[in-house]
Amino acid sequence: MINNNPIGLFDSGIGGTSIWREINQLLPNENTIYLADSKNAPYGEKSKEEIIHLSNKNTEFLLEQNCKLIVVACNTATTNAIKELRAKYKVPFIGIEPAIKPAALNSKTQKIGILATKGTLNSELFSKNTEQFQNIQIIEQIGYGLVELIEGGKMNSIEMQDLLIKYLTPMSESNIDYLVLGCSHYPYLIPQIKKIIPKKITIIDSGEAVAQQTKKILKETVGRNKNSNLSENTFYTNIDPEVLNGILENKYTIIYKDF
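The structure assignment produced for this chain is given below.
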């Protein structure tokens, strides 16, 4: 039965596991298959055409595994390719976009910061989503090098700390009161970010909202898993699984596949 089929997720690497965690926590009996395209990370520096090509390839792999719904657990892939994915494939798609709206609506200083990839900030969809908040000053910062360090297992390195200080200090000095994390890799940096920015700045990511939307779309379309047992969760990666294993604390099955 299709409702017992797995939910598929893909990202340009391990970052989308932050989205997977939220979905798994909210929907613990849903089977999942996660695809980490770490070999091609980061997507943020690639052209729109390349991102669409990689997103198609990832989708087709997940469809071969009989996934009933696909979560594009990557801001860059969502903002550049989800329109094309929805037009090409019949499966329901859930995208992930920077949580600009809640930050803008709740900001008291009328200034919010967003840390994201070049591909996300330069996308047509991101531009469209920010146009509606003309009264809010949105301070954008491309997170050059952050994804590469996370993928390389250097999340807590001096290089990471130096980059975060470089990117976040100007935002803090600009009197932002919300910091939007516009890349699914970045929630793993929250403990370090909190040491750099003032406590008055609220950090927002999209994980919980994506999980809630996944629950909603499952109910409206392909259905929830009827099996009350805990889920089966399988992870695929196309590079050495050591870093992914570390992120997942060696708790899950990881399969290397050269795709």
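Interim note for the steering committee: The chain has a mean pLDDT of 95. DSSP finds eleven helices and ten strands in the chain.
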